[in-house]
Fold these 2 entries.
Entry 1:
Amino acid sequence: MKINQLNIVVLTGAGISAESGLRTFRDNGGLWEEHPVEEVATPQAWQRNPSMVWGFYQSRRRQLSEVEPNPAHFALSKLAEYAKDFFLITQNVDDLHERSGIMDVVHMHGQLRMLRCELSGKSEERMEPSDLESDFQFCTCCETASRLRPDIVWFGEQPMNMVEIYNKIETCDVFIVVGSSGHVYPAAGLVNFAKQSNAQTILINLEEPLNSFMFDETHFGSAGKILPKLVNEWIEQSSL
Ligand code: OAD
């Protein structure tokens, strides 16, 4: 694959951050096992028990400073450097892609670094030590400061940036998915859209996910081992 001649779109899921020490959602011991979705990841949960939801996300926000990007994140930033065109979509709410050197990451499901004003809907980056305390935080945009919620897409809410995402996939040559179980739509259906747009589709995942039959090429194993090798192979092929 001559990546220097190709327009590449990558979609990542929780699996790419697993080797950095962040738990995935649906694997054994995954986050949803200990914290049911209905209790921490829906607008109804936020209305019913905001303290529980706030506590869940504050602890995940604090955890960001304890983890580092892993070889899979760095392999993607190398791919971004060598590809003719590169666009990264992530379902992840962590900041590990940015910290591996890719600055323009499109987050479909929001970002832990950001909080959103409940009244105006405006998001602000809030990662100072005082922003990470257990108490609710308040916005800087309203005259009387309003409560902030996590800037996360909960179940029943619309994923972010979908128009841009479909536009980029429609014109890509290669669509690569890394570390996603294929359970959550619309992300899980993007591979169908890529195929309809005549892109080559490649999957890298620990285990076979639900939608693996949609991919032209599959690689099963840990992303931290597989991706650096694949990217190096593609770079070599490009220089021939
Ligand atoms: P899941 O937890 O559903 O799936 C993670 C996938 O990564 C699984 O298929 C694992 O086999 C794979 N995996 C685990 N470790 C890996 C490794 N080291 N290398 C490669 N693959 C590995 O996570 P997502 O598919 O990202 O949404 O979940 C999608 C969405 O569901 C999340 O964004 C979140 C969740 O509910 C919201 O919170 C809105």
Entry 2:
Amino acid sequence: MKALIDRLNAEKTLSRAEWTALFAGFDDETREYAAEIARGIARARFGNGVYFRGLIEFTNICRNNCYYCGIRAGNACAARYRLTKDEILGCCARGYAAGFRTFVLQGGEDPFFDTERLSGIVAAIRAGYPDCAITLSVGEMPRGDYEALFRAGANRYLLRHETANRAHYERLHPDRMSFDNRMRCLSDLKAIGYQTGCGMMIGSPFQTPECLADDMLFLRAFEPQMIGTGPFLPHHDTPFAGEAPGSVELTLFVLSLCRIMLPDVLLPATTALGTASEDGRRRGVLAGANVIMPNLSPAARRKDYMLYDNKATGGEDAAETLSVLRAHLSEIGYELRVGRGDYGGNR
Ligand code: SAH
């Protein structure tokens, strides 16, 4: 196992059979070995700095029906909301004052926020905060829409591929969603010039070591600028209500392998990881993650953006959230790094 990790570190790739063996057979010792190498790589690239991004969950209305997700269209129990443009700009203002220099607009695929409306919001943020990065995470669109949003001033886009194994993808999504379209979106985003993030859930139902091997091979080939990956956690009003949550240890192991394979990648210690384990985000940083995405949404709305049960909502006040985070990170020898934190910007 350690020999495989050494080879990954040297050659930055493994075969499908080797990846599969690694995921099927890893133990704590292997995981810690990988974490040590990953941490060293992150330290060499980013020092003891962790970038922070402000997450604005601006709508929980969604036309899709992903079986895992708590805000799926078919969940009649979700209390639906949309933020107004002014509310979104208010989140940015509070975030900016606290020190945030990246805003991440995330939401369901809400038809109300068509390209024109969304472009207007992006343009307003761009005009108000020329020194900030704008990240979008609003699902699948035609290429022309991605282009329009890029022209309006968006710089980055997060669209997790969820799983790179087609058969697995089809067990996580209803028929009207397509693996090919998700992949088409990702390649369009990258071609347009977005710093592009993909990623997968760890331990989602029906995931096998082979699925994770396919994820690693896909990440190798696609070379995303960002990888968002966290444990699957069940939501009680979804078809996967009764499924087991993904493992924190496996998630940490995957984070380390991503860091070793793609040394420069922006790698968040996700909210799901922080929800699954109280110390999850710090353990993520120690496994090679270099980004944390605190919540900037209005506190009253956060309980309604429930992708999975017990999702951590974070502190109400942006400045206080950062001071708590700063204190937690300083205990492990890390600090928040102010700035946009672009891909490759550390070099
Ligand atoms: N509509 C956007 C944003 C989706 S929410 C899009 O399609 O990209 C962001 C991410 O949360 C998803 O990509 C998914 O990987 C994750 N997520 C959703 N439900 C989850 C669950 N039950 N457990 C863990 N992660 C989940």
